[in-house]
Amino acid sequence: MSSNINLQNNFYEKANALRLDSLYREAVAMYLNAILIDRNNANSYFELGMCYKNLKEYDKAIKYLELAGNLKKDYFDAFYELGICHQLQGIPCGAIKNFIKAIQINPENTEAILQLGISHELCEEDEIALMVYQKLIENSPEFTKAYEHKSSLLMKKGNYEAASKILHKLLKIDDTYATAYAGLGVCFEKLGETAKATRYYRKFLTLQPISEQTNFIKSRLEKIKTRHMAKCHNYIKSI
Asked: What is the pTM of this model?
């Protein structure tokens, strides 16, 4: 019996080392060997599921993560990762039940609550998503991601004034949060307050001169400038 335990541990430890080196295919074989010896080890199923997640084989990942959760009912990581895998697979509504289970196990985990909100948003349940983000803001006021996601959803719904208020609250927590300045720029541009929009866009570029959003922000500034010059030109012609 003890020799089997030692052999199982040996396979499991080798698998962990391979996984940490991103050798996921090789790790899969070792985890499967460990499971053949002990089919009741939730950790082996979990790590096997994580290997398949990294290999982007989400059906298999979900299968083994579910087995881990079935063996260990309070396995927070298993249910959380199940939710993530369902999202990655494009089935956000299937993610909801797993994030709820994860939150029931660990009600203080802000990332799980955030992902629950994102899943509702992806399922086009915007009002529920907004409620989840707001609850996060109330219970974890320093958790900046909640502000970012709530403001983003409000902007998507065309509620730019409400979104700008959320972003201002975010900047009170962290005045270097570059994405908030970009969001404020969009909000004020949509609200027709181009001077404010320009100021916030420029603040973003000061903080992040090179980023995925840089070209977009520069294009917005150029359009504001072009519109302003056109207005000046038309005004001069009318005199």
From this structure: 0.89
